[in-house]
Amino acid sequence: MLKPVHRKASLFLIALAVFYLILAYRLESFTAGPIGADTMPKILGWLLILLSVILFFFKDQETEEEKQSRRIAKNDLIKMAGVLLLTFCYIFLLERVGFIVTSFLFIWLCSWFLGYQKHVKNIVTAVLFPVVLYSLFTFMLGIALPSGILPF
Amino acid sequence: MKKSLVLSLSLFTVLGLAACGTENSGSNENGSASGSSGQENWTPQQSLEIVAPSGAGGGWDTTARMAAEGFESEGIIDKGIGVVNKEGGGGAIGWSYIAEKAGNPHHMFVSSPPLLLVPLNGQSQYGFEDFTPIANMISDYGAFAVRDDAKWDNLNELFDDMKDNPEDITVIGESSPGSMDHIQFVKIAKAAGVDPQSIKYVSAQDGSTMTNLLNGNADVYSSGVTETIEQVRAEEIRVLGVTAEERLEGDVVSEFPTAKEQGIDETFVNWRGFFGPPDMTEAQISYYEEKFKALSESEHWADTREKFAWNEMYMDSGEYTQFLKEEKESMQQLLNELNISGG
Amino acid sequence: MGSLEGILSGVQLAFSFQGLLFVFLGVVAGTLIGMMPGLGPISAIAIMIPITYNMDPAVALVLMAGVYYGAVFGGSTSSILLNAPGISGTVATTFDGYPMAQRGEAGKALAIAAISSFVGGTISVILLMLFAPVLSNIAIQFGPAEYFALMVLGLTAISSLADGSTIKALISAVTGIMAVTIGIDSQTGTTRFTFGNPNLLEGIDFLVVALGLFAIAEVCALIINRHESPERNGSIGSLKLTKKDLKDMSGPMGRQSFLGFILGILPGSGATIGSFMGYISEKKIAKNPEEFGKGSVKGVAAPETANNAATSGAFVPLLSLGIPGSGTTAVLLGALLVLDIQPGPLLVQDQPALFWGVIISMYIGNVFLLILNLPLIPYIAKILAIPRPMLISMVIMFSMIGVYAISFNTFDLYLLLIFGAIGYIMRLFKFPAAPFILAFILGGMMEESFRQAMTISNNDITVFVTQPIAMSLLLIALLSFIVPIVQNTRRKKAEQK
Questions:
Q1: Do B297 and B304 form a contact (C-beta atoms < 8 A)?
Q2: Which of A35, A66, A92 sits opposite C430 (nearest CB)?
Q3: Which CATH number does the domain housing residue B198 bear?
Q4: B115 located within any domain
Q5: Residues in domain DUF1468 (chain A) (predicted)?
Q6: A97 is in which domain, residue-wise?
Q7: Can you tell me the distance from the alpha carbon of C32 to that of A140, in angstroms, rounded to the nearest whole number?
Q8: What are the residues facing C144 on neighbouring strands?
Q9: What DSSP string runs through B131-200?
Q10: Is residue A60 a contact partner of residue A6, using CB atoms and an 8 Å limit?
Q11: How far apart (Å, rounded) are the C-alpha atoms in residues B95 and B87?
C-alpha cells in the first residue's frame, strides 16, 4: 500500500503537520481577542494534514522515467556528501580563519574533488576570486568580511 | 576517488586547525600584553571593532559608522576602526557575539533601550549587566502624532478620551508589542492615568505606519521625533507631545509640547551609547571614556548630531550604569503591567 | 505655470556635467553592487550614505537614485546565469531565465532582461512624471484590510505556478507559510517555533530560502551532471533576438510597466511582489502558458520589466508624500534627511529643480544602463563556460557570501544548506519550489495585515467587504480562483462529448 512514493511523502508531511500542530497548540497568546499568535499556525497545520490526506489517495501517475530520475548513482551520492562536508568545513572555518583563506581552500579543494585536473588554473582562480571579492566588499564598499588570520 | 575526498578534507582541516591555533595564540598574547601593560595606562594593541547589532542603514548602524568616522577624521584614536553588522534577534545575536569576547576590549557594540527591553521580553539571555557600559553619546525622544483634523488638541484630551473609549483609538508604531514604540507610549499614557492593558496597539513593520495614520486606520502614531517633522510641516499631522524633559531645539521641533509641560510627569529617553565586553579593567574603561568624551565634545560630532537631529547626552561609565539600572526597573514594571514578559 | 519652469530647471540639473557624471557613477556602482551576492538596493544605498555626506543634495539624490535602480537592474545576472537570485526582486527571473541559459541562450536571456529592464524603467518614469500626485493619493488608501486582500489575490496565483500536480503546489505553499511563521510574532511579541534559538527570533531571511531552494538545490543537480562539458560554448554569449522574440516581449513589457509601477507605489509591496505578479499575470493571459518555466521569452521579460517599473513606483510616495513605502525607500529617506532634503508634499514647490532633476536623471540613467550592459553581456555570459567542477565551487561560495553579507551570522549559512536540501528533495519528489517561495513572501504579510485589520476594527470581520478597494480585490481573487476551475470542467465535459 505504501509502494507509490507519493504515499510515503504524504505520511511524512502528515507527521510534519502533527509536529507543527503540537508546537502551535503550546503557543501562549497574550491577546484577548479571538485571533492570536496561534491562530494562523493552527489553520496551517490542519490544512497541511487535509492536503496530505488528499495526496495520499491520489492515483499514482508517475512515469517510469520520473522514478528513474530519483535513483542517484552511488558515485554521485559520495560526491554530494563530500561537497556537503567541505561546505560544513567552510562555514565552520569562515569566521575563525577568515574569508580569503577559507574560500581559497574551498574552491581549490572542492573543484579538485569534483574532478578538475588543471591544478595551476585551479589554484590561480581559487586565489584570485576570493581576493577580488574581498577587496570589493571590504575596501570599496566598507562591508567587512572576516579577515581572520590575515593581517588586512 | 574516495582518496581525493579524504585528502581534501584532511588538508582542509589541518590547514584550518593550524590557522585556528595561530589565531588563538595571537589573541592570547594580546590579552596578556594588555593586562601586563599596567593598570594606569592602557592603549589598544590592534584595530578596534564596533558591532552594530542590526543590518545596514538603521539607527545603530548609523551611530556606529558615524562614531568610527569621527574617531578617525578627528584623529582621536589612531588605530583602525571597523564597523561590523551582526543582525538578528532584535540585537541578541550581536550581544552574544560581544559577550563571547570577554577579556578582549578591542570589541564594542552600540545599543539603545532594546538592550533593556529585549532581555526583559525573554528574547535574549544577555542584558546590560553582562557588559561593560562605556559611555552614552546621544539621545532621541519619542513623539505622539495625530492627523491634522483629529479632535484632540493636546495629550490630556487624547488620554481622557482613551480612558472612556479605549477600543476606539488605535495606536500604531513600528516595533512589536513590548518594544520601543509601544513602551514609550504606554509609559506616558500610564502616568496620565490610562490603563496600560486597555491600549490598542498595532505594530506595522513594513514602513506603512505613517500611511496608516494618514488614511485613518490608526489614530495615534508613536514614533521618533524626526519621523514626524516633514508631515507636520505639510500640515498633515500634529504632534501632541514629545517624551523629552524640556522642549527640543530646532526648526519645527521646538514647537512640539512636552508631556511634562502638559502636566504629565513622565519622560522617555531613547539613549544610545557604547558597550564593551564583560570584565574590562579600570584602565581600559577610562581609556575609552576619555576618547568618547573627546569625540562628544568635538565640532565634528556636534555637526553630526545636528545632521541626524540627535541630542547631546554624554554619560561616563559610572553614570551610565546607574542610569541603566533605573531605566531597567521602570521598564520591568511597565512590562509586568502589560502582562508581557518572559515569553 | 510654475511647474514648467521647474521641469526646465530640472533638465538643466540633469544635463549638467555633475548631473551626468553622478548618474553615470551611480548606475555603474549600482549594477556592480546588484551583481554581488547578497547585496541589493538597501545595502547599495546604505553604502552611499557616508560618500554623499558633504555633497550637493541634488547631485547626491541623483547618485542615490542611480544606485537604487542600478542595483535592481544588475540583480538579474546571477538569477539567469547561476539560478542564484542576488536580491528578492529577481527570484521570478530565475523561473525562465535559468532554463534559457541552460539551453545555451544565456546571452539572449541577459539581453532580454536588460531591454525589459530599460523599457520598464523608462515607461515607469514617464508615469512617475505624469501621475505622481494623483497616484500618491491612491497609495495612501491602502491600509491593512486592502493589503490582506492584495495578498490573497497573490496567493490565488499559486495554482498557476504549479507544473503538474495542483495538490503538490498547494502543499508546497502551505509549508512555505509555515516557514515564515518562525520567529517573533509582530503583533503580540510571542516567539513562535524558534526552539529557544535566538538566531531564529527575527525569522528566516527571504534570501536564505531563495538561494537554498534555487541555487543550492541546483548545485546538487549540477554535481550529478558534472561531467557534461559546456559544449554550447560558441553561442552562449550571443545576443541575437529574433523578430518573434521582440514581438513576444513587447506585450509583457508594455503591460508590466504599468502593473509593476502601480505595485511599486503601494507601500510595502515593491519589486519583489511586482516581479511575481508580473510573471504570474503574463502566464495567466499567455496563449501558451505551458512554455513558462521552460525558458520562455515572456517569462524573463515580464518580471524584469515589472521589478524595474516597481522601483520607479516606489519613488512616488517617497517624493510626493515623504512616506517610505519599503525598507529600501526608508533607508533612502534617512539618507535624504541627512542631506537636508525633506521629501514630502512640499518638495515640488520648495525645490522644483531637485524634484524634476532626479526624475529626468532617471531617464538618462536607464539609457546609460542599457548602453553599458549590452556590450558586456557576451563577457558576463562566459561565466557559464567555466568548467563544471569550478562553477559548482563558485556557486556555493557565491551563495554563502550572499547570505553572510546580510546577517554576518554563520547560523544562516547552515540554514542555507538545510533549505538547499529541502529544495533538492522537493525536486526529486516533484514538489514545485516556486509556490513555496511565493507563499513565504505573501504569507507573512497576509497574516500580519489580517490581524492588524482585525485589531483596528475590534475583531469585526466585515471590514474586508465594507471597504471598496479591499472588496474588489477579494472579488478578483475569488474570480481568478473559480474561473479556471469552471473552464476546466467545461473543457472536460466537451472532451467527453
A1: no
A2: A66
A3: 3.40.190.10
A4: yes
A5: 9-146
A6: 74-140
A7: 11
A8: none
A9: SEEEEEEEEEEEEEEEETT-S--SHHHHHHHHHH-GGG-EEEESSPTTSHHHHHHHHHHHHTT--GGG-E
A10: yes
A11: 10
Residue B33 lies in a domain: no
Chain B: list its partners (3+ Cβ pairs within 8 Å). A, C
pLDDT per position in chain C (497 positions), as tens?
A: 457 888 888 899 899 999 999 999 999 999 988 887 777 888 788 778 777 777 888 899 999 999 998 998 888 998 999 998 878 889 999 999 999 998 888 999 999 999 999 999 999 999 988 887 777 777 778 889 998 998 898 888 777 777 667 889 999 999 999 999 998 888 887 889 988 888 888 889 888 999 999 999 999 988 988 876 655 555 677 788 899 999 999 999 999 999 999 888 887 667 888 899 899 889 888 888 888 989 999 999 999 999 999 998 888 888 888 777 677 887 788 788 778 787 877 787 788 888 889 999 999 999 999 998 899 898 888 888 888 899 899 899 989 988 888 778 899 999 999 999 999 999 998 899 989 998 998 898 899 999 999 999 988 889 999 989 899 989 988 887 787 777 777 777 777 76
- The answer to whether the Cβ–Cβ distance between B16 and A93 falls below 8 Å is yes
Q: Give residue C162's identity as a one-letter amino acid code.
A: A
What average pLDDT does the structure give for chain B?
85
Does B203 contact C at CB distance below 8 Å?
yes
Q: With CB atoms and an 8 Å threshold, state whether C445 touches B62.
A: no
Nearest CB to B88 within list C188, C409, C452: C409
Domains: count for chain A: 2
Which of residues 406 through 445 in chain C touch A, CB cutoff 8 A? 410, 413-414, 417, 428-431
Residue among C393, C264, C381 at smallest CA distance from C319: C264
d(CA C313, CA C328): 13
Min CA distance, A150 vs chain C (Å)? 18
pLDDT surpassing 60 at residue A31: no
Candidate from B88, B170, B178 with C-beta closest to C199: B88
Indicate whether A139 pLDDT > 90. no
Whether residue B84 and residue A89 make contact (CB cut-off 8 A), yes or no, is no
Query: Are B257 and B305 members of one domain?
Result: no
Q: Are residues B153 and B260 in the same domain?
A: yes
Residue A115 lies in a domain: yes
Kindly state whether residue A111 falls inside one of the protein's structural domains.
yes
Residue B47 lies in a domain: yes
CB B250 within 8 A of CB B309: yes
**What is the spatial distance between Cα B29 and Cα B23, in angstroms, rounded to a whole number?**
10
Burial class of residue C238 (count of CB atoms within 10 Å of its CB; 0-12, 13-18, 19+): middle
Chain C residues in contact with B211 by the CB 8 A cut-off are 139-140, 142-143, 267, 317, 323, 325
Q: Which three cell numbers stand for residue B112?
A: 539603545
Residues 6+ apart with CB under 8 A from B10: none
B50 and B131 share one domain:
yes
CA distance B264 to B154: 11
Cα C28 from Cα C12, distance rounded (Å): 22
CA-CA distance, B36 to B29, in Å (whole number)? 10
Provide the domain count of chain B. Answer: 2
For B286, the domain range is 40-139+271-338
Classify residue B71 by burial, with Cβ atoms within 10 Å: 0-12, 13-18, 19+: buried
Residue with cell 506603512: B208
Q: Please answer yes or no on whether B19 and A75 come within 8 Å at the CB atom.
A: no
User: What domain range is C245 assigned to?
Assistant: 2-496
Residue pointed to by grid coordinates 550592459: C373
> Based on the domain organization, do A95 and A130 belong to the same domain?
yes
CA distance A58 to A129: 49
Could A95 and C410 be called an inter-chain contact, meaning their C-beta atoms sit closer than 8 Å?
yes
Q: Output the domain CATH number for residue B96.
A: 3.40.190.150
Indicate whether B16 belongs to any domain. Answer: no
